[in-house]
Write a structure and sequence with these properties.
This protein folds into 2 domains: about 45-60 and about 180-260, Translation Initiation Factor IF3 (2-Layer Sandwich), CATH 3.30.110.170; about 65-110 and about 135-180, Alpha-Beta Plaits (2-Layer Sandwich), CATH 3.30.70. The protein starts with a helix and ends with a strand. The chain is elongated, with a radius of gyration of 36 Å. It has 5 helices and 9 strands; from the N terminus they run H-H-E-E-H-E-E-E-H-E-H-E-E-E. It has about 260 residues and is of the alpha+beta class. The strands form 2 sheets. Strands 2, 3, 4, 5 and 6 form a 5-stranded antiparallel beta sheet that branches. Strands 1, 7, 8 and 9 form a 4-stranded antiparallel beta sheet that branches.
């Protein structure tokens, strides 16, 4: 007599369990082999390459304020006369606040012309798109750059310069840059710290592989990243932030050690 049908279907869960157990066993074996080969490779190798890193928070020690003095007049002599008066007022303003480290760029003379509201579609047959716009006056621009170690005072000075408008003096701030001038020396210090970090990592890896570290064979410093405080942005060329007073400098070192 044939066996009952339910007995056939009851064997399938058991078969699935056997297969699942087999796959798990194979996976564990593969993982164990890969792990073992990693340490065998470490045991057989005479070198180990590890990347170490260093991070340092610094404060800028130099501030550069770039601004433009502007003066206008209907005629060139009128514009120049006003420019001379405004420049003298600005010098007195800076001198009263103890600012002496600044430089002037050459004066640039520009024509003042009315803004045309016509577009190409508005032109009629009597209009000439290439006609010369009449001059309304002249404007003299002169850039000024203030450099100081007073990294907190100069930004306040730039804000206070708005008071010059009361005397008719137009001084337009272009940008304020904060610079850390000791970057070259700091890079050397950070390279040593990053190399020490690489050695600690290499010692830990070698120790778990039954090896000991020998001498440092070579070290290659990575790109230095200077970001705003706690910033982590990176670039192939290296970042050099000049917008923030406080900065974070990071760097890496790829170190090669001999094993014994």
């Amino acid at each position: 007599m044939a066996s009952p049908a339910p007995a056939v279907f009851s064997a399938k869960p058991h078969l699935f369990g056997v297969l699942a157990g087999l796959f798990l066993a194979v996976g564990l074996v593969v993982a164990a082999v890969a792990f073992t080969r990693t340490w065998v490779h470490l045991r057989e190798s005479n070198l180990i390459v590890v990347t170490g890193s260093a991070r340092l928070n610094v404060r800028s020690d130099l501030v550069v304020w770039n601004a433009v003095l502007q003066a206008e007049g209907k005629t060139l002599p009128e514009a120049y006369a006003k420019f001379q008066r405004d420049a003298e007022t600005l010098r007195a303003f800076l001198s009263a606040r103890g600012i002496t480290g600044y430089t002037w760029a050459p004066v640039v003379v520009k024509d003042i012309k009315p803004e045309s509201r016509k577009t190409v579609l508005d032109l009629t047959e009597s209009d000439d798109a290439s006609s010369v716009t009449p001059r309304m006056g002249y404007r003299l621009d002169q850039s000024i750059q203030v450099s100081s170690t007073d990294v907190a005072g100069v930004p306040r000075l730039a804000a206070d310069s708005l008071a010059l408008l009361a005397d008719g003096v137009v001084l337009q701030t272009e940008k304020i840059e904060f610079i850390y001038t000791k970057l070259a020396e700091t890079r050397v210090q950070m390279m040593a710290e990053a190399t020490a970090d690489a050695r600690r990592r290499a010692e830990e890896i070698a120790g778990k592989g039954g090896r000991r570290l020998d001498r440092l064979r070579s070290a290659k410093m990575g790109v230095v990243q200077v970001n705003a405080l706690y910033g982590t942005e990176t670039s192939w060329e290296g970042n050099l932030d000049t917008t923030s007073l406080d900065k974070t400098i990071t760097t890496t070192v790829s170190a090669e050690f001999a094993l014994r």
